[in-house]
Design goal:
Shape: globular
Number of helices: 1
Largest sheet: 5 strands, antiparallel
Structural class: mainly beta
Radius of gyration: 22 Å
Distance between the termini: 18 Å
Strand content: 35-45%
């Protein structure tokens, strides 16, 4: 039965953490990256010039930070030599990567998987599943009589990222380890260590590899900045550095594998020459890396207009068409503009402007497989969003969903054929609660799935 909850206005401070993603991002995880490891060959699966030929491959500034590999075929399996969608092995583009969640949402036709966050000292974080037929949510643990309250539980996680259904099992990264277990919560196991012992918030399991990023403080020639590295770790063997970039300022990375390609969006907050410490210029770079040849290329680079910044939440590459991303105005005038980079012309042009007036409030768009989705307030009397607007990649608005006054998408996770899924924070009986809920695509009221 659908349960209704009363909504209390949260502080504007909390709101600003998720409105647009327009603030400059300056990571500081204090980690150090280990050197790349040569990926071992596997008899019968590695063609000539494959992973065993990576000795001496190093990142190159002339190649935009991509590691330069010898010519060869590096696919993990010959069946991956296609741009067709492979549902058992490809990233599910229906879910959304957001830095605050590490993309911990995925599902099958019958089940949704997510992380239940523990806010109390005696409340652990647990992988949780929801049966779509019954609406029941439970910890994903196949141990009989488990109390689900400590690390002995199969559902227990510490710092998870990249929760994914891959090749019939559930995969995730936790504190630098790749973990997996059966979809019924049995046979949990550590698959391998990653190249770095940290949890990445930009991570993707795709066609035999897990791709992930690290950002750390660094300096070059006496200039302070940040070091971005993108790693690829085979689910069967070693690891290598895909890209290594130093940036004088902040850098944020989004990556999205599609077919044989891995698309990368870098949002950089660069120090202006002669400017102060906080005098930054936002720049976007769109890059592409071929998993078969291991060759990378810069597709597009542009500085944002004065006072504007590029979003750091989401983008959508569509092979044969283009790459969709967004730009927002400053200071927080909610002027959201969707841009489209065209593979045909090599240029990026405004595709859709969402801002209509001074009281028209929008968040940064979320780019899913089939829709561009934005949260919309519509009036200036509240800072919280009531509607979800769904646009096609032709720019047509096809749905307006209003889950109800008790629901708003503080975090948008993803969607399936029936619902949008998200999380919001509420206060109930003087307690802060997180509510995981669904907004039906048929326009019905929001449905609570879980609250904790």
């Amino acid at each position: 039965m659908t349960r209704r909850i009363s909504f209390l206005l949260l502080s504007a401070v909390l709101l600003l953490t998720f409105l647009t993603g327009c603030e400059h991002f300056t990571p500081d995880d204090g980690t150090e990256s280990r050197p790349p490891v040569t990926l071992p060959s596997e008899e019968g699966t590695v063609p000539t010039g494959g992973p065993e030929a990576t000795d001496g491959a190093e990142p190159s500034e002339e190649n935009h930070g991509f590691t330069v590999f010898p010519e060869g075929d590096y696919l993990a399996d010959p069946m991956f030599d296609t741009d067709e969608y492979l549902p058992d092995y490809d990233v599910d583009l229906s879910s959304i990567h957001r830095l605050s969640t590490g993309d911990n949402f995925c599902g099958t036709e019958t089940t949704v998987y997510y992380i239940r966050n523990g806010h109390q000292a005696d409340s652990p974080r647990l992988i949780t599943y929801m049966d779509k037929a019954t609406g029941v949510s439970l910890p994903l643990c196949g141990k009989p009589e488990c109390m689900h309250d400590d690390e002995n539980c199969n559902a227990y996680v510490f710092s998870p990222a990249g929760l994914s259904v891959y090749n019939g099992k559930l995969y995730w990264q936790d504190s630098g380890q790749v973990m997996r277990m059966n979809l019924d919560g049995t046979e949990r196991e550590k698959l391998r260590n990653c190249a770095v012992s940290v949890s990445s918030q930009c991570i993707a399991f795709h066609r035999g590899y897990v791709y992930y990023t690290t950002e750390s403080n660094d300096a070059e020639n006496g200039v302070a900045g940040y070091r971005l590295k993108i790693y690829a770790s085979s689910l069967d063997g070693g690891s290598f550095v895909l890209l290594d970039r130093f940036v004088e300022g902040g850098v944020n990375c989004l990556l999205k594998p599609v077919g044989r390609e891995v698309y990368i969006m870098l949002n950089m907050a660069l120090q202006k020459k002669g400017g102060g410490e906080d005098d930054l210029q936002d720049r976007v770079e769109l890059l592409r890396w071929d998993t078969k040849t291991r060759q990378g290329e810069l597709l597009y680079s542009a500085d944002a207009p004065e006072g504007a910044v590029y979003s750091r939440y989401s983008f959508r590459p569509i092979p044969g068409d283009g790459i969709y991303f967004d730009l927002c105005g400053e200071p927080r005038d909610f002027r959201q503009i969707v841009y489209k980079y065209s593979f045909e012309t090599g240029e990026a042009e405004p595709f859709m402007e969402l801002y209509k007036g001074p009281e028209d409030y929008f968040t940064a768009p979320f780019f899913t497989r089939d829709y561009i989705i934005v949260e919309h307030g519509g009036t200036g009397d509240t800072l919280f969003y009531r509607d979800m607007l769904l646009y096609t990649y032709e720019g047509e608005m096809v749905k307006r969903l209003t889950p109800g006054d008790a629901y708003y998408f503080q975090i948008f996770y993803g969607m399936d054929e029936e619902n949008l899924y998200g999380m919001c924070t509420i206060i109930e009986e003087d307690k802060w609660l997180e509510v995981f809920f669904a907004a039906p695509l048929d326009g019905g009221e929001g449905i609570i799935i879980d609250q904790y």
